[in-house]
């Protein structure tokens, strides 16, 4: 699907496999064999979607009501590409105008200054979940940290498999469960990062029975 300045709006195009043109030395379609075995199932695809970062909201709002509504329909409606999931950062990200948290201004153990409108957490992620729930937005899952092994210039925290294991087992997991966001209500995922790290992280984290819950 393509959109462009020429007026195209999610214009559908189809790629057809054909025979390799005579004289073309590149790998041709007759050398490519794709076999789909529908009887063997592995992971289920939950859905496709995008991130609701600050820049997304800012630019859609700047587009105006008419175009903003059209953008959302193009992404999420049956007349568009039918996105079915969305991702929301907890606080600022690399697509924010500046680094910020959802409770800026120094130590605030009671989270009295917590709010979701600060475009301007330690063990209380449940406060964030409840705040969105009050707006009829329910999360089906969260990750501990986006790209935990990356050292970023914006607000983020570097985690290893060991520190993630300890944080989940001793702090985040118990807090979520005590607040009614246990495994039956919310999927807590680790390693929101590259595939080559999966085996080591799974080995370390799932060896701990408390973290593995």
Can you walk me through this structure?
The chain is mainly alpha-helical. It has a domain at 121-213. It has six helices and four strands, in the order E-H-H-E-H-E-H-E-H-H. The protein has helices spanning 54-62, 65-76, 125-133, 161-178, 198-205, 209-212, and strands spanning 49-51, 85-87, 141-143, 187-189. The strands form two sheets. Strands 1-2 form a two-stranded parallel sheet. A two-stranded parallel ribbon has the order 3-4. Strand 3, helix 4 (161-178) and strand 4 form a beta-alpha-beta unit. The longest helix has 18 residues, at 161-178. The mean pLDDT is 83. It catalyses: a beta-D-glucosyl-(1<->1')-N-acylsphing-4-enine + H2O = an N-acylsphing-4-enine + D-glucose. This is Glucosylceramidase. It comes from Oppiella nova.
Topology of this protein?
Blueprint lengths: L48 E3 L2 H9 L2 H12 L8 E3 L37 H9 L7 E3 L17 H18 L8 E3 L8 H8 L3 H4 L1
Parallel strand pairs: 1-2, 3-4
Helix pairs in contact: 4-5
Describe the structure concisely.
By secondary structure, the chain is mainly alpha-helical. It has helices at residues 54-62, 65-76, 125-133, 161-178, 198-205, 209-212; strands spanning 49-51, 85-87, 141-143, 187-189.
Sketch the topology as an H/E string, one letter per element. Answer: EHHEHEHEHH
Low-confidence stretches: none
* Percentage of residues in strands: 5-15%
Helix content: 25-40%
| Overall average residue pLDDT | 83
Question: Which of globular, elongated, flat, extended, rod-shaped describes the shape?
Answer: globular
Secondary structure category: mainly alpha
Determine the oligomeric state from the structure.
single chain
Strand order of the largest sheet: 1-2
Largest sheet: 2 strands, parallel
The tally of beta strands, per DSSP, is: 4
Rounded Rg: 22 Å
* Spatial separation of the terminal alpha carbons: 41 Å
Specify the number of helices.
6
Protein name: Glucosylceramidase
GO biological process, one term: glucosylceramide catabolic process
Catalytic activity: a beta-D-glucosyl-(1<->1')-N-acylsphing-4-enine + H2O = an N-acylsphing-4-enine + D-glucose
Region (Disordered): 1-24
